[in-house]
């Protein structure tokens, strides 16, 4: 049942409001939603009405509070006792430039000062609040990131708003002629800052635990001995407490007035940096294993530029290592990547999709050929 609260509720009309609401409720005992979209003000007398309603029906919640009304509920502790949600500002992204896209959302520039990340999942409010907390955590730890300052409704979806004055993604900078070599070197500075940030046990989700799941899923689709060795290789990767971004590529790095900032912080995790390199290889090269245009279409640069950015990233990150070491990191990244791609493609498999069929065959053949020759998946 939904009951709309309107105008002002204070000492002059609290008793009358409570009587009217109780008459509407009657014998109803299910979930009760109080819609505050037209509520302008509520005093302590009105708050006591809400408190009695909550005590008589534990399934009572408040929705669509404007900022002033929400602040009253928040300051008085009601947001800790019951579900109270704000009314979200409505925003249109029609005709706006798409400047980034990840697994969970699309990033639009709505004006020169502002970008909004619109989540693909319509039930994403918990994800949005989680990303905001992760972004704050990363910022406090010294990671250069943009922190969202507002949540908006975009059609049936929700989004986070960031203030990024005249910011450009690294992808756009490449297309405007900025050197890949220079941008790769700059991206490595951020990457090393992330990986050198050590977390407490359990502070972020474990990437190792997730990755072992990828390998275990593949065992039903590989020869028994190959599948068993693949799982063991994944289990042998040590659990470390390095921070990982999880979706580190040129569309998620923005440059604003010469300062580089990360966006899309909802994939933050912790674990060995090899998982980061595997995800980067997937974005720049791995997803193009059948169609070389996949990475180019996703990242908005040419296929050759994708490969060059990946190679330059390894070159600058491991500047103190020889080529043999860099080649070994490349091979480890490939195996982790193709196990992940195999699982992902099988789970989304459409028998009428010839590209998916070819990707599955490619990944299986790659793993069958290379897993037996691999001793470890970490450096």
- What's the helical proportion of residues? 40-55%
Low-confidence stretches: none
Percentage beta strand: 15-25%
The largest sheet, given as strand count, sense and whether it forms a barrel, is: 6 strands, mixed
Strand order of the largest sheet: 5-9-10-8-7-6
Tell me, what's the shape?
elongated
- N- to C-terminal distance: 58 Å
Mean pLDDT: 94
In words, what does this structure look like?
The chain has 379 residues and is α/β, with parallel strands linked by helices. It has 14 helices and 15 strands. It has helices spanning 14-25, 44-56, 67-75, 78-81, 125-140, 170-175, 180-195, 207-218, 224-236, 274-284, 293-299, 303-317, 323-347, 354-370, and strands spanning 2-9, 32-42, 60-65, 83-86, 89-90, 97-101, 105-111, 114-119, 150-154, 157-163, 168-169, 243-244, 253-256, 259-262, 269-270. The strands form 4 sheets. A 6-stranded mixed sheet has the order 5-9-10-8-7-6, with helices on one face. A hairpin with a 2-residue loop joins strand 7 (105-111) and strand 8 (114-119). Helix 8 packs antiparallel against helix 9 (224-236), helix 8 crosses helix 13 (323-347) and helix 10 runs antiparallel to helix 12 (303-317). The protein is elongated and about 80 Å long. The N and C termini lie far apart (58 Å). The mean pLDDT is 94.
